[in-house]
Amino acid sequence: MNPAHYIGGTFLPHGDAPGGDATGTLPLIDPVDGAVRGRVPEAGRETVDAAVAAARAALAGPWGRTCAEERGAALRRIADGIEARFEEFVDAEAADTGKPRELAATVDIPRAIGNFRAYADLLYGGAERSYSTSVPGWSAAGTGTGTGTGVSAGFGRALNYTVRRPLGVVAVVSPWNLPLLLLTWKVAPALAAGNAVVAKPSEETPSTATLLAEVIGAAGLPDGAFNLVHGRGAGAAGEYLTSHCDVDAIAFTGASATGTAIMRGAADHLTPVSFELGGKNAALVFADADLAAAVDGTVRSAFTHSGQICLCTERVYVERPVFDEFVAALGERARTLTGYGPMISAAHRDKVLAYYRLAAEENAQVIAGGGVPRFGDARDRGFHVEPTVLTGLPQDSRLLQEEIFGPVCHVAPFDTEEEALRLANDSRYGLAATVWTSDLSRAHRVAPQVAAGVVWVNCWNLRDLRTPFGGSKDSGIGREGGTYSLDYFCEPVNVCVQI
Ligand code: NAD
């Protein structure tokens, strides 16, 4: 699979970008063994301009005239198209990310299909119609008197109705950890709402986005409704796209620092942003919890995809009476984990290992891991790190404050519910949290007090796509999911008719 730009319904061969500005290609590196597997084209400014222009043209053409039912049917054809090539998508996702194939087959690709079906269902379920409200009757103030001034306050009989209009050209920029899932999480509602999209996936995981472009082409979407450009972010395709003067809205998932950079560029054109950013997610384990379930859930929440999911737990707070038992059980599970994948890149592996070194320097107690595994085969040239469990660090340690995005969590004890909440909320991030308790009242009391966008009780990463998803504080701006996404990707227009 050779990733390629897709603009106005056409794939551009490498080096054949408009204006000849495909300034080169990047190596596509296999994180499992460090081998170069292919090349990723880099879009220069003119390529990004061409993609934005193609999207703009699509809005003026047949795509701009589609009704909700037609778009819903198109989303279903896309979902069916991914499903028909399921194994190909799974292979490409596993190869780019290094994640276990089973994870791609049970999470990434099914969820990508689900994203398209969920928004098709919403359209068929009348989401768009229910958005169109009407208010007949008396309308107060500013009705005009017919005397020529047209500004005097008063009352007049009017019919007000509100329709939803797509925002226009939407830029979607996504990260490498769940490449197709997170891309389609934004592309599906953006298309459902009638926008035209220019997407830029992570330069580290370009393959499934390219397959998606093939599927969208085969699904018969009008040319330019969906466009794809590849390349890096800062000073490259990502920045060119998100600071583009003809982009009407930005939907971004990635690091908080990148959100800051994108917002600066967007400010010049007052382009609205929806941001899903980093996290430093806490788990609160109360002594009354089903401890086996809490350990099991924390193994999943800390180590799935080697901790490279924004929702992963990096801070665990455990009520003191069960602290030792919990730490021993979690440590044992971490030490015996097998089949886990690598970090996405050498740079990211080095970042995670720098935190492991910091833990040693700060005299953390290393319960499990803390180093680099040795396999005795090609994987030793890849970017693996050991699943790691730490204790003994103070709350203000960088290890408890900064997002590491690796297979590592720190476990600390607490004595009271108030203390647990204070520790959980002592973070610049507020993406997700997990509460483990068998006390129903405590669950309902504690969960809403955690300063996070998503709080799970006795589970982790159980998702209903209709619910709001997003982060507080430095973890994001806005909410996506269900009608929350449709709210972002279109704007209300009120029409007032004097009757
Ligand atoms: P990243 O911010 O480095 O890159 C994300 C995307 O932004 C990539 O496509 C990249 O090329 C692009 N980009 C980078 N700099 C840019 C710039 N200046 N202008 C425009 N585009 C730019 O993030 P990453 O390393 O790919 O992903 C990991 C981060 O994403 C973590 O912080 C993680 O928590 C976060 N994340 C958040 C969620 C969520 O839903 N909140 C989900 C997944 C990942």
UniProtKB/TrEMBL annotation:
Keyword NAD: yes
EC category: oxidoreductase
Keywords, in A-Z order: NAD, Oxidoreductase
Organism expressing this protein natively: Streptomyces solicavernae
GO molecular function: oxidoreductase activity
InterPro entries noted in UniProt: Ald_DH/histidinol_DH, Ald_DH_C, Ald_DH_CS_CYS, Ald_DH_CS_GLU, Ald_DH_N, Aldehyde_DH_dom, OHmuconic_semiald_DH
Domain Aldehyde dehydrogenase: 24-492
EC number(s) reported in the record: 1.2.1.85
UniProt-annotated stretches for the region Disordered: 1-24
Catalytic-site annotation from UniProt: 276
Family designation: Belongs to the aldehyde dehydrogenase family.
Protein name: 2-hydroxymuconic semialdehyde dehydrogenase
Keyword Oxidoreductase: yes
